[in-house]
Amino acid sequence: MRKALMILAFCAVSMSAFAQTFVIRGTRHEKTEAMKPTMSEFYYPEIAKVTPGDMATNSAPSDAIILFDGKDLSKWQGARGGEAGWKINPDGSMTVNKDMRNGGGDIMTKESFGDFQLHIEWKVPENITGEGQARGNSGVYLQNKYEVQILDSYANETYVNGQAGSLYKQSAPLVNPCRKPGEWNEYDIIYTAPTFTADGRYRTYPIVTVIFNGVIVQNNTTLVGTTEYIGFPTTEPHGDGPILLQCHGDRSEPISFRNIWIRKL
Question: In the chain, what are the domains?
Fold first, then answer.
């Protein structure tokens, strides 16, 4: 009887100890009376304070770099060199200039970026014509290598990995939240830059999340290489790079941009 009681007591103690165990990141730890909640709390380094932007006034977060505020193109240059020659409008937007003889063509930021959060607003004109890829075509190139497609996709059929919100010819958007011509669209793009091995292969691939008019259309999507119009993605080792806005052909009325800002991550 005494032996049975001792076994029962031992089991009770063992079960109590087992009940006090817990798992943190796959490692089993024993709780003790000396442990306190504060053991897993830390206070430094302090988190930087950021004043959020105001949607009513289209203002950016306090730590953002303003790439275009509607006043000038001082943060931009022509992709082929020289000054950026797009038209600045009275409403604080800018419109693509397709005249290559007069400062037209693609433009890109003077500054280069790695990981970032990018906000940009764009609009195709209300009187837009054309169809498919010839209807308000443009694009936002991340590090001048990877394109988030811009297009009038409100009621315009084309290949799905080439419509607005796609990672061009790689990943179709999850849904189509495009607003009708004449209304402003918003992209919020979160980008993680790739890294490369010594022999020029991807160590980690570029990752992109796109929020299109408040709707996630690319959810932590992995790009497998650069954006190519003909053929398939290629691997091209690179470091930080500029944001490029595309001037695409002359088959459709030019689109406009406004309120462009970026936060380094």
Answer: 65-264 (2.60.120.560)
